[in-house]
Design goal:
Rossmann fold; 16-stranded mixed beta sheet; 36% strand; alpha+beta; single chain
């Protein structure tokens, strides 16, 4: 979803990054030439930052320039920060334009404090703030600063705390919670990535931030799930790059033809089960519109990848795929709609139907989040589909969902009545304009460019009730009780709509205690998809006639 989150993401992003990030052990990071990072909000590109890391005789210098459109609205004319050889900050200089207003910031660091001078709108402000000598300096929206954090993470251990200075706001603290490895495949190489998950203290809450580094300690990616923000090195951000977060012995990479292009997919076949005489019962996994890959990654958890492997271990063949125009799939995103994405899902089902190792009488489509909308459109049109599963799927219309998300985001950051009114009014105007019910007058050009698309028009105009009541498949509605993205009223509405379907169309519902939108157990701290979900799903599938 583009504009719905974009209007609210500005507020979330500002609130999150003002509280900042971390610091710890030192490493010897190699310097290099300029590197470009792409910045995404809600999986949509908003700009770039081009950075350079230079090693001198007695320390390090990180420089960058960049341009970030709405909702950040920042021109980075110059960012430069100097560290000594032990990665202790010496000085920071920033020149930029935010929301059409030029500003500058200069900070000098001593053993016990930092002196900052800020100039903006013709006014100068000076601040002296106590600052640990080992602090990592992370000014909001200047992501090149994370190179210093990447260097320190190479020598850090789980549980280490990082003091972080966010000029001019002050000091914050972050803790390294976990470090794991992942592999990123590009056309020319395979990159081993170290994924560091940190928790940032903010207003009594703990916010997760993932920092990815390569084997040399250089920055690969910064992911802030609460802000739906990703900053990704250009080679990793390429549409042909694929992060292998979930692997299984039965995985097989393949390409399947759709409308004039091919979809990149992974078929996972059970390896420790005898093949049934009729073929494998088969499940197609449909990712949400905000998922960056076929693994259905949410907050760095490969939800659909884990579900695929759990199903394979239970004796089901699965297929998951990159949406058209994303990951390693062909096609274009700008002309795609919900209907065309559903057409791709149908093409995958038809391809599976031709295989001699598939039980064509036991074919299921599962949609996660608004991927459930694509799944139900495909089920409405495709009689080869025998079962339909909707996981954490919204009800209502796309226009209603956009406004609900807008209000929830404003509530989350405690926006003032004035900010709420302005954001909601702008969102309503965009919604009306996209649906040809109002003018674009006064809507910023970048926002119109992102909203005035076939995809967003189809999203806003989609009516779940109209589509779901015309499906005839056996249906399962499932959600976690701690899912804060899709509230329980959505499952209630879906179940009510399902009662209006054909009298022979059966419906079941499962509400799973303690699970969040990722299908993980919130209180356990384990981001993996819960066994309670996979057990409930496989039991339901086994009950199929």
């Amino acid at each position: 979803m583009l504009v719905p989150v974009r209007a609210s993401a500005y507020c979330i992003l500002a609130a999150l990054l003002l509280s900042g990030p971390p610091a710890v052990a030192q490493t010897t990071t190699g310097a290099s030439g300029p590197t470009t990072f792409r910045v995404f909000v809600d999986s949509t590109p908003v700009g770039f930052e081009r950075l350079e890391l230079v090693r001198g005789d007695d320390g390090w210098t990180v420089r960058s320039r960049g341009d970030l459109a709405h909702p950040i609205n920042l021109q980075n004319r110059l960012f430069e920060i100097e560290y000594d050889a032990q990665w202790r900050p010496r000085s920071l200089s920033i020149q930029g334009v935010r929301n059409d207003s030029p500003f500058s910031l200069v900070t000098k660091f001593g053993d016990t404090g930092a002196s900052t001078v800020v100039e903006e709108a013709g006014r100068q402000t000076s601040l002296d703030q106590p600052t640990p000598a080992t602090a990592v300096v992370l000014p909001e929206y200047f992501f090149a600063a994370y190179e210093a954090l990447a260097a320190r993470l190479a020598g850090a251990a789980t549980g280490d705390d990082f003091p972080v200075f966010v000029p001019p706001s002050g000091i914050s603290v972050a803790r390294l919670e976990t470090t794991s490895t992942s592999q990123i495949s590009t056309p020319s190489s395979a990159i081993e990535a170290h994924v560091h998950t940190l928790s940032f203290a903010q207003a009594g809450a703990s916010l997760p931030v993932a920092v990815w580094t390569d084997v040399t300690g250089r920055l690969l990616r910064v992911s802030i799930p609460s802000a739906r923000l990703d900053v990704v090195r250009e080679d990793v951000a390429s549409v042909s790059a694929r992060v292998r977060q979930a692997t299984h012995a039965g995985d097989e990479e393949t390409r399947i033809r759709s409308e004039g292009f091919s979809l990149a997919a992974t078929i996972t076949t059970p390896v420790d089960h005898p093949r049934p005489e009729a073929g494998w019962p088969t499940v197609l996994l449909v990712p949400s519109s905000t998922s960056p890959d076929r693994d259905g990654t949410v907050a760095d958890t490969p939800v659909l990848g884990q579900v695929a492997h759990a199903l394979a271990n239970a004796g089901y063949m699965t297929l998951r795929y990159d949406r058209r125009g994303s990951g390693q799939s062909g096609g274009r995103t700008e002309s795609a709609t919900l209907e065309t994405h559903a057409g791709d899902a149908r093409a995958l089902i038809r391809d599976l139907d031709k295989r001699d190792d598939v039980d064509t009488d036991r074919m299921t489509v599962i949609g996660h989040g608004d991927g459930g909308w694509i799944a139900m459109i495909a089920a409405r049109e495709e009689r080869r589909i025998d079962n339909l599963v909707l996981i954490a799927t919204p009800a209502g219309t796309g226009a209603d969902l956009v406004m609900e998300q807008q209000r929830a985001a404003l509530d989350e950051i405690g926006a003032s009545d004035t900010v709420r009114a302005e954001n909601i009014a702008l969102q309503q105007q965009i919604r009306d304009a996209v649906l040809n019910d109002g003018p674009w007058t006064g809507v910023p050009a970048p926002m119109r460019g992102q909203a005035d698309t076939p995809w967003f028009r189809s999203f806003l105009g989609f009516d779940v009730a109209d589509t779901l009541r015309r499906t005839r498949q056996r249906l399962l509605i499932i959600r976690g009780s701690r899912d804060e993205r899709v509230g329980p009223h959505h499952a209630d509405q879906l179940a009510t709509i399902a009662l209006t379907r054909h009298e022979e169309a059966t419906t079941d519902r499962r509400d799973l205690d303690g699970l969040d939108h990722r299908l993980a157990e919130v209180d356990s701290g384990d981001p993996a998809v819960s066994h309670s979900f996979t057990d409930a799903l496989t039991r339901w599938l086994e009950m199929a006639p």
